[in-house]
Design a protein that fits this description.
Order of helices and strands: HEEEEHEEEEEEEEHEEE
Largest sheet: 5 strands, antiparallel
Shape: elongated
Structural class: mainly beta
Helix content: under 10%
Number of strands: 15
Length: 193
């Protein structure tokens, strides 16, 4: 053909990488065998996202009021929770800005409130010219509550958490990498009396 190979003529950041693996397996007969060819392709993925909303619901096995008023048979009595601190650590390696909110709902799916006063905003990760991750964005949030305050009372009514995420590339095309991740680590620290 007179046309250059379109796969090999692309620049390296947009190139579709491909290779073939072949193996031969012999059978008991000298005239029979199998040739197995496995193509492997790495196709670059570019995308633009404008305020895409994703959400997922997490159901608690026990109501928080049951957890907060834990009856400890070893201590022969009730242990009352005096304070709770929810600590979240976010790590974003996507070249996509992300906003996260946690909506608290009761057993009838009525909204009790939001865990955060506003959406937690994670800026997009920085990407190098060769499309490797330059640096990730990390953010730590702590929500503290004590017995009797408004957030503590809302948590007592909570049976479901609805995690909402809003993704945005701010009108830019971004390339997704196989090692992009959005990680969330959570710890709950309980102070009892």
């Amino acid at each position: 053909a007179n046309l250059p190979n379109p796969l090999s003529s692309m620049n390296s950041s947009n190139q579709i990488n491909y290779n073939l693996k072949a193996s031969i397996s012999n059978t008991s007969s000298e005239t029979e065998g199998q040739l197995k060819i496995s193509p492997i392709m790495h196709i670059p993925a570019w995308m633009t996202i404008n305020n895409n909303v994703q959400q997922d619901t997490m159901k608690l096995d026990k109501s928080l009021s049951e957890i907060f008023n834990y009856n400890d048979s070893i201590a022969n009595g009730q242990i009352k929770v005096k304070g709770v601190s929810i600590r979240l650590g976010f790590t974003n390696s996507f070249p996509i800005a992300t906003k996260v909110q946690c909506v608290m709902m009761d057993s009838n799916y009525n909204v009790v409130g939001n865990l955060f006063s506003d959406y937690v905003t994670l800026e997009a990760a920085s990407i190098n010219r060769d499309y490797t991750i330059k640096n990730v964005v990390e953010k730590n949030i702590s929500v503290d509550m004590t017995e009797g305050d408004d957030m503590y009372n809302k948590m007592l009514k909570t049976k479901y958490f609805v995690i909402q995420e809003i993704y945005n590339t701010n009108g830019q095309d971004v390339k997704l990498l196989k090692n992009n991740k959005l990680l969330v680590k959570a710890n709950i620290v309980i102070t009892a009396k």
